Fold:
Amino acid sequence: MSCHRFDLPSSRRDFLQTAGAGFGAVALSALTGTQAQASSARLAQRAAKTKSVIFLFMEGGPSHLDTFDYKPLLNKLAGQQLPASFKPPITAMGETKSPLLECKRTWKQYGQGGLWISDWFQNVAQHADDLAVIHSCASSGINHAGGVCSMNTGSVFGGRPSLGAWASYGLGTENQNLPGFVVIKDSEATVVNGVRNWGNGFMPAVYQGVEFNSDGVPIKYLDNPKGVDRQRQRDKLDLLSALNADYGASRKDNTELEARIKGYELAYQMQAEAPQAVDLSKETETTKKLYGMDDEATAVFGRNCLLARRLVENGVRFIQLYSGAGSKWDSHKGIEVNHSRLCNAVDKPIAGLLADLKARGMLEETLVIWGGEFGRTPMSEQGDGRDHNPTGFTMWMAGGGVKGGQTYGATDDLGLYAVEDRLHVHDLHATILYLMGIDHTALTYNHKGRPERIDQNEGHPFKRLLGA
Structure:
């Protein structure tokens, strides 16, 4: 069989030339493409300030009613049934006639815009003038599997490309020695749906996210084995590439093989550049303290936020940080204890990230997004918890050219339904791509004869975030 016959190239240049008609050429284009990697149909359609995105994902569904969406009426009616004027929602757990649950937080107004923020995020509140708080988010996912999948891919069903994959596909990478899309969790726990949340779906596998470690060395197996120098590693990689290219010549639809070729090459390039990019020992103690790394309660997420800043500095396009991996923000019972712990773990690190980006002149080019797969209901569950609420919840954005110090959209007086400027997940995705300079209607990928896009032909960018 031809796949078992090959001539060893005398040099890497010879290999790339002889593999020009096979998978080697595909991998090479991905490796050397940077901005040229994207076709004219996929390039940015407008000048954009956002060059990188840091998505702070609170997995499990944080309560908007206890953090950023102040509803005084909720406490006035606490203990009573949902008023008859409200359409009864379909709840994930199926509880009916549950009384309204009071919010026990202390609220204050912050910044020139007078944003209402609870004491659970008193550090983030110091950056109120940079926050664009969107109160009218909505999703089609009523449970965690559908909600997390929807927020990441636009669909409640698995199998579609993630938002980070679309961004990488559309804009390419700024640093061929690091992944364009990185994911970092706050523990070894599995995010619901697992790697599908940062997967490539039906697009080539080279666009999927690369998961970094939550503690210790961010990237496993980055160093060469003892006794193996860089030239020997180069020779091994060239041999593997030759084998893979020969095998893939008759299997051109196998994007996993394409990703493997690129993965080997990227790993080799990362051995030179990644160590300095992820080396937090170079940061000052003052900076580490800013992120809360001196406190056990905030150290993990603080480290991840600081690592995200370093990755942005080194040209990584899209970074997603998971808080509460394993749906820990889910609060069907004991929301006070649950959210107190989790908010405390992320409040100072997020504030430190915003402050550090701003001090370094990076915030205008870095879009920071905060939110989860949905919010929580105003009605109680199990007496002291809240159920899932995909019909109206809060997310916020900062930097990347958005107009901060403002609230956008609104939920009703009890925070159950989005009633003004309702933004479905499809609209949020279209907006994020718009902020990155991409016309999402032009960012398409042909799959089985059909042009697919992130919003499934339903989303519209919310341009008011730019003051438009």
